[in-house]
Amino acid sequence: MAGKVVLAYSGGLDTSVSILWLKEKYGYDVVTLTVDVGQKEDLKEVEERAKAIGALRHYSIDAKSEFASDYIFPSIKANALYEGKYPLGTALARPLIAKKLVEVAEEEGAEAVAHGCTGKGNDQVRFDVTIRALNPRLKIIAPVREWGMDRESERRFAVERGIPISQKKSRFSIDQNLWSRSIEGSELEDPFFEPPQEAFEWVKVEDLPDEATYVTLRFEGGVPIALDGEELAPVELIERLNSIAGANGFGIVDHVEDRLVGIKSREVYEAPAALSILEAHKDLEKLVLTKHELEFKRLVDEKWSWLVYNGLWIEPLRMELDSFINEGQKRVNGEVRLKYYKGGMRVVGRRSSESIYDRSLATYEGASAFDQSLAKGFIELWGLQSRLGFRRVEG
Ligand code: ARG
User: Fold this and answer.
1) CATH code at 129?
2) Does the N terminus or the C terminus of the chain have fewer Cβ atoms within 10 A?
């Protein structure tokens, strides 16, 4: 007997077929693990399916709060949008799932862990890098990367072997959690083709309300703590905002994304809460941080997103960037007012006890605390070198 393997099990086709593959090809006893990061699957059903296919034991771990507080919240402080667009839902969840996989493997005394990632995506990197860092003794098996079956052969295999496959399955490849719903594949592989309405589940695309909807978010230490004056736990706040913003047609991303393995891929996301919170957070930062902090932080934020997208959650640099970010975020307290209307969203107000906006300096009305007579000399020196250099260039 080869011992035990713990498989990250979603209940989908790939990981269902993997249970049999791990048993038959490797002779493993298969323990399955489903980590709830807000994917809204029926966990009981997932467990029953795993056992029906032949899992020795199944674990369901509710990691929603941990996901929100320890993964999503740091990404908010870092204004994390990969290539300026993607709020990193999948990328943030993978290292957490990998961590749980390692914990269960250690508890079970398993010699290997397995996941259902293909060899073409980012997720394999995120899993493998994290697992190797946390426990280098564990063997990693990625059946889908090894077996060379396409979706159709997998389906045939499942039918032949009596593996139950869910009927309501969409034709798109979906990965969803609290922070984003990613929609790939099928006709979306043509980047010019507009995603059809049925691709979307979180964002309403038709019959939008005729009235605008306003939401006020309160931030403390750079993270949202209340919605319209009501303090909410992170998971609840995100869920509630997902439904408000989604109902108003806001939260779709459609772009061409550069994967770590070199492939360009057309990606469509629904992320109503994520995009709202990130926009509000960035706006509030502008009220309280200096222009020097903001300028430098843009570089830090960009690097943070890049590391996390590319599977390096456990990299010391990411943690060191967090330390830098956390220092400035102590002052990112205040309220941001958002207005949703017919699929659009914009910030319409912001205020903060830490604000360094000074109306008496900025005002065009009446007497100002800003001494305009100082401007002339300042500009003389500000342009000094440019003026001298320009004369040389022009000859
Ligand atoms: N492109 C996104 C990312 O790399 C989403 C991937 C979705 N993953 C999936 N297994 N369908 O994070």
Assistant:
1) 3.40.50.620
2) C
CA dist., res. 367 & res. 201, Å (int): 54
Q: Are residues 142 and 207 in the same domain?
A: no
> Is 90 exceeded by the pLDDT of residue 390?
yes
Number of structural domains (the chain) is 3
Which ranges constitute the DSSP H helices of the chain? Answer: 13-26, 43-53, 64-67, 73-77, 89-108, 123-134, 143-147, 151-160, 234-247, 272-288, 291-309, 316-329, 359-362, 373-382, 384-394
Shared domain check, 371 and 343: no
Indicate which residue's Cα is closest to atom 1 of ligand 1: 267
Does ligand 1 have an atom closer than 6 angstroms to the CB of 173?
Answer: yes
Task: Based on the fold, state whether residues 159 and 204 are members of the same structural domain.
Answer: no
Instruction: Kindly report the CATH number assigned to the domain that includes residue 377.
Output: 1.20.5
CATH number for the domain harbouring residue 201? 3.90.1260.10
Q: Look up the domain containing 329 and give its range.
A: 174-351
CA distances from 389 to 119, 383, 386 (A): 53, 10, 5
For the stretch 14-24, pLDDT in tens is 999 999 999 99
Distance 383 CA to ligand 1 centre (A): 48
- Looking at residue 198, the DSSP 8-state letter turns out to be G
| Minimal-distance CA residue to ligand 1 atom 6 | 90
In angstroms, what is the span from residue 117 Cα to ligand 1's centroid? 10
DSSP structure class, residue 12: S
Does residue 141 share a domain with residue 162?
A: yes
Tens digits of residue pLDDT in 310-325: 999 999 999 999 999 9
For the segment 339-345, the average pLDDT, to the nearest whole number, is: 98
| Residue 257 in contact with ligand 1 by CB distance below 6 A | yes
Tokens matching residue 355 = 């604000």
Do 249 and 320 belong together in one domain? yes
Mutate which of 81, 122, 177 for ligand 1? The one with the most ligand atoms within 8 Å of its CB, which is 122
